[in-house]
# Entry
Amino acid sequence: MSETWLYLSVLFGAFGLAFFVYGKKQRAVVPLLCGLALMIFPYFVASTLLLIAIGVALIATPYFLRA
# Structure
């Protein structure tokens, strides 16, 4: 793990918290689940590039999946 990985995991966790709170208040399932995933997935990913790829994909998912 590097310093970059640590900063990115905190950044994605912050985005995850924002999505989670938004999804909970709006009763929207997609942002709620994406927020939960954004807060949890950095614990299971060791590669910085994979962390960036998954994080960006999860951040973009609520924009493309409006349910």
Observations:
- The chain has a mean pLDDT of 92.
- The longest helix spans residues 3-26.
